[in-house]
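Sample pair:
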Amino acid sequence: MNFYSVGGRRFVFAVGLTFLAAALLWLDKLTSGDFTSIVNFNVIALVAGHTADNFAKGKRNDTVHDQS
């Protein structure tokens, strides 16, 4: 399966984990605090993985432009 058409493997995993956590919350197997922690760490891992990939590929995100 080509995961790039839906955002990549990491994104599909993150969405799946969020749906699983939502289902467990709906079934009263998780507290709202646990759900919040799962979603927060999920987003942190997604962003950190994307940043690490860009760093490994040598991509830079220079937002400061020289005005001289």
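The chain is about 65% helix and 0% strand.
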